[in-house]
Design goal:
This protein is α/β, with parallel strands linked by helices and about 170 residues long. It is about 15% helix and about 25% strand. A seven-stranded mixed sheet has the order 3-2-1-4-5-7-6.
Length: about 170
Amino acid sequence: MNRPLNLGCGLDVRPGYINVDLYPRAEGVQAVDIEQRGSLVPFAGSPRIVLQDVLEHVHDPHALLVRCYQALTPGGLLEIRGPHFTCRDVATDLTHRRGFSSESFLLLDGWEVVSCKIGFEWWHGWLGWVNLHPLMQRAYEATALRIFPAKHVRAILRKANVHVVRRLDR
């Protein structure tokens, strides 16, 4: 298996990817419950996995990250996008279980954070300076600046060449 995965793709079907969703609504999308143990085993050896607007919906995000880790090749990339904790959608979308911060993915075993960016709506674009340095991101998230809500967090994680030592996939 050398093709990248697009998990929970919805209608965002990507050419060249294996596109999967719990409820396929587009042609070429495979029905897979990514929250089930062993669900990603058939896709082992993937060089890249995309979780765009997915991780905030699952019951156990850590277990899903472990499954992604197991499905990726060494050095493979995991692209995550989810709502920032200040985003209005976290509170108004009943299917959202959580929001994320710029630090949400820093302490995961077996992953190297390649990049992490906070995204804003166009009318808060002037806040783009927060992505100049991780300390500026933390300053935004820890101060009254967050009264100007962010839209999402985008993180790219690389599978390190170490084993996940904490909690195993259930």
